[in-house]
Amino acid sequence: MIHLNLLRFETSPYLLQHAHNPVEWHAWNDETLAKAIASNKMLLISIGYSACHWCHVMERESFEDRHVASLMNEHFLCIKVDREERPDVDQLYMQAAHLISGRGGWPLNAFALPDGSPFYAATYFPKSNWIDLLTQLAMLWQQEPATIRNAADQITTGIRAGSQSPAAAGHSGSAGLRVPVESSATGPPLSLQQFDELYTHYRHRIDFRYGGEKRAPKFPMPSMWEYLLHFHHNTKHEEALTAINSTLINMARGGIYDHLGGGFARYSTDERWHVPHFEKMLYDNAQLVTLYAHAFQCTGYALYRDVVHETLGFVERELMAEGGGFYAALDADSEGEEGRFYVWKEQEIDAVLGPDAAVFKEVYQVSTEGNWEHGINILLRKNTIKLHAGNHGFSQPDFELHLRGLRRRLLEHRSTRVRPGLDDKILCSWNALMVRAFLVASKAVCNENLSYAQAMHYRTIGLQQLDFLLTTFVQNDGGLKRNFKSGRQATIDGMLDDYAFLISALTEAYQTVFDERYLNVAQQLTEYCMTHFLDQTEGFFFYTHQRTTGLVARMKELNDNVIPSSNSEMAHNLLTLGTLLDIPRYRILARTMVEKMAAEIEKNIYYHSNWGRLALLLVEGPVEVALAGPEYAEWAQQLHRRYLPQVILTASAAESQLPLLKHKHFGSKTRGFICKKQLCGEPLNSVAKLLEQLD
Q: Is 192-341+422-621 a CATH 1.10.1740.10 domain?
């Protein structure tokens, strides 16, 4: 008899994967929480995501076992949570795990009182240990419930204390919004000298040989390298650029990068980026496309441009939904083995490529013994294409063309394999990140001699997908929903990251095509956040809407991680919109937020890198560039090719009501204007003069 639990009514692929477990899983919702209180059962909250390898392992070992399921069903009300759909739930119970053990990860298994107050949380358990834990907790609940309640009180108190802003927790900065006016005399939150000292303190953690940090496993952490790229731009610090290039080149050559299909795996298990954890996440690839595009603007390295093209090719081919939107992830596993879809034995390559195999194997480190385990090879490069081309008597362009043909043949063969599982939910925040990636890429590679048509293709996709997000996720009350799948109605209210990254995508779209409609929507969403998410006392935004129920604490996301924090992204948005629309209260709030985070930035830039970028921008203040006249698009294209992180750009062919464009049009002539610190220079009559002043 096939078992079905309540998860069969959900849309999340991760929850649906557990719909046939003998565990009586419930989804996280008000009805489930009311049922827990009525039954006085402890909550067992198991949190994971569809591409998580160890989540699948624990399901096979424990959740599909009828004896284990009977223990879980008898003593607990069991809730399954997709952390990508409900990051608010994940954040709360992950904080509990860190308070209890100092570590966290997925699968995350949290135990809580019927009201949701956590008293224990940990990660993966082998089956025997899991049974022992369930038995002990059931006995403790029956015999010493006060012990469990006391533990829950302590942990809940710790969570609530941890959700305060740095100022409220006793760090530097004044609580509340008490800056009545904006003053050009106000100094930056951090000085350029402090940023130099920050780099000096951080540099010992950089792996200059292989890139990234000196650690394993290694995560790409795009926000950190975006920060260092901006730092290099401001200071011309050459060692910082060396660290960036070492990281991006080694990642692009390593096994973490899919050399046949494009795109990056989630992280590397070793220090050299050779052996990945093979899941491919939408949010990683979105941010890495943006990073490589910015690095290409800065350095002109063709490798970075190629990574952008290949990764966006992967996204279009494998993650873009036919009806609109981007899917969330590809699993690490296929046919029950991690990475099986992506790896090769030497004889497979010989069979597909025949006489051409020798060259390919030399370039991509393929051998009989294998470069991983059990004679298996992960495709990776150690040397430059130029070196290999010279060894074989080819010009570099001819050799690259030959390799491209070999990769295409292997990709076609690979496509006949059993594919990894696809997580086909569409999330607002992650989609917004990818929309921005397409738009940034369209600007970076826009060269009339090389990639103009491809750049316009990226722009078209970015704008089409942005319109899909606005149509799908914006609700009648002006707020957002978070999730969408298979045409079914979204069920989860948008969280702060949904707003923050969608607003960011909208401002990117405006600065790409200068359609003021995007600014209007961005302002509407920002005002919605100010009303429903902003903590008026502390001056930061809560992660959840004020109407959200069921959580024992309302959290604030402040630390930047693999994805920048929603508060740091909102601060960027407030500065950008406040500048474009001349709204002082936006700019004041952005500056105030950074000021309150200044001590945290100095303490640990790695987990405050997006805050650091904004603080860097405030050292000299943003540079406002206005292009007015019929040739504004051609002028903008020249700016778009350059890495100009300090520039906030506005443009129009005819008179506009936008503050930065008022009274700046001269009939048939195109002019450029540069404004900084409330001071504007003379009109510039050529884009060359404009670029000269910006450089």
A: no
